[in-house]
Structure formats: structure tokens, C-alpha cells
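Priority: medium. Attachment 1 of 2:
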């Protein structure tokens, strides 16, 4: 296990094949400052490069996952103009893309509030485990702002009607509704949240790493392709996967047991 100094805005640690990145601005509800976004990007790169890492988990320090953009920095970018605003937005967008393109599954552990860009960050993850009392939402419209970056992951997880309502009403929803809509994967009980989340992560980290990586690559690689192309890509991945060492060993174990 390793972790940077206490002043880090993203704390990185590895245990049992799980790299946990903790957003560490609890006094600001883990708002996404430019420095935090940069450290998060670095942490994701570090996890992707470490062969020990089988699963990546994102969580927030303190009572909330992430309150979204740091509005004081938004105000600065308003004074600096379009180019500064665009550069700032692209940095967060690159984090969303990095999460999606990593060959490890990325799991958001959401306690408290996940709002705006924080909800977008959770939604960009492959799996979202929500505390039963967690709150999700995109309140940007109340500020005259557009929840622009978050729409890419949102539209891929939630139906068009539900996604549109979320971004134009800016209302908040609970964990159970987030699961029903597809924004979150499942809820975990409040009293045992940490233990249940740790067990889930350990179990996921125990799955064959190459199979998980190839599954994620194909799953996200089917975005926007025709049915015929999806089947063709699936056939290619099927052939690649069956020739991996993991699959050879798995098939052998199954056949050996069947022969007993």
C-alpha cells in the first residue's frame, strides 16, 4: 500500500489488487478544482501502469462523494475568457475519457452527495455502488449553467427521457431511483457500506484480469456501431479471448472436473 502526503487532493493506495483514489477536499465537499482534477488524472495513470492493480475505486473523503465543479475557479475562468474556460473543461473531460478507456474496471463508491461534475464522474465509472442515502443530481441549470461534460456518460446509461429531465430540471434523486434509472449500479446498506463495498471490490479483483480487460474494451468499443459491426467485433474478441492463457486454463479446469 502506498499513499502520498496529507496535502494531496487525491490520496492513492493499493490493497489486495484494488487501487483506491480518494478525493481529498472534504471541507469543499471534494469539489473538482483544477489541482484535484490534475491529481486524479495522475492517479488514474498510475493505477493503469501498475500490474498489481486489478480494480480502481474512486471515493470521497468526508460525508460526500463530490459536489461538482469548484465555482470559485469557474468565476476565474469567466474573467479569463473562452480559451481558459475551454482548457479547464477539457481537463475534466479527459479524466472521463481516461476512466472509460482504462482496461481495469473503475468503481465509484458514492456516499452523500454526487452532484454536477461529481455525478458525472460517478457516471463515467463502469460501476457505481451507492450508499442507500446517497444523493445524485445535475443542478447546473439553477445557476444558468449547462451540464455539458456529464451528458456523454449520462446518455449512455439512462434513457433519453430520464436523462433530459435530469439535466433540465436539475432536481436531486436518491440512490434507489438512481439504480432504477441506470445511473447507479446498486445500493449498499448504510451501516455496512464500507464492508460491503470492500467485499465487492475484492471479489471483482479476483476475476481473471485479461478477461475483464478484454470485456471492458469490447463493451465500450460497441458505442455507436451497427449491429453487424458489433457482431463482427464480438467474433474477433471471442477468438482472441479463447486463446489467452486464462481461458485455456479455465476450460481445462472445467473439462478436468467434468471428467471426474
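Attachment 2 of 2:
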Amino acid at each position: 500500500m502506498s499513499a502520498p502526503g496529507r496535502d494531496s487532493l487525491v490520496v492513492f493506495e493499493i490493497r489486495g489488487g484494488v487501487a483506491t483514489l480518494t478525493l481529498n477536499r472534504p471541507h469543499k465537499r471534494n469539489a473538482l478544482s483544477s489541482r484535484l482534477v490534475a491529481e486524479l488524472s495522475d492517479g488514474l495513470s498510475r493505477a493503469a501502469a501498475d500490474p498489481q492493480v486489478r480494480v480502481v475505486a474512486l471515493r470521497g473523503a468526508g460525508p460526500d462523494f463530490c459536489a461538482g465543479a469548484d465555482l470559485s475557479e469557474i468565476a476565474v475562468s469567466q474573467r479569463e475568457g473562452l480559451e481558459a474556460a475551454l482548457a479547464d473543461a477539457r481537463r475534466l473531460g479527459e479524466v472521463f475519457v481516461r476512466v472509460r478507456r482504462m482496461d481495469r474496471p473503475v468503481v465509484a463508491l458514492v456516499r452523500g452527495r454526487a452532484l454536477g461534475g461529481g455525478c458525472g464522474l460517478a457516471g463515467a465509472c463502469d460501476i457505481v455502488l451507492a450508499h442507500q442515502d446517497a444523493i445524485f443530481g445535475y443542478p447546473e441549470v439553477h445557476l444558468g449553467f449547462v451540464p455539458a461534460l456529464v451528458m456523454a456518460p449520462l446518455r449512455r446509461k439512462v434513457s433519453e427521457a430520464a436523462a433530459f429531465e435530469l439535466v433540465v430540471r436539475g432536481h436531486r434523486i436518491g440512490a434507489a431511483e438512481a439504480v432504477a434509472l441506470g445511473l447507479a449500479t446498486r445500493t449498499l446498506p448504510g451501516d455496512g457500506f464500507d464492508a460491503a463495498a470492500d467485499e465487492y471490490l475484492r471479489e471483482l479483483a479476483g476475476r481473471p484480469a485479461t478477461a475483464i480487460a478484454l470485456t471492458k474494451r469490447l463493451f465500450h468499443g460497441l458505442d455507436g456501431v451497427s449491429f453487424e459491426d458489433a457482431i463482427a467485433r464480438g467474433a474477433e474478441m471471442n477468438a482472441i479471448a479463447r486463446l489467452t492463457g486464462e481461458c485455456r486454463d479455465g476450460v481445462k479446469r472445467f473439462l478436468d472436473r467434468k471428467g471426474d
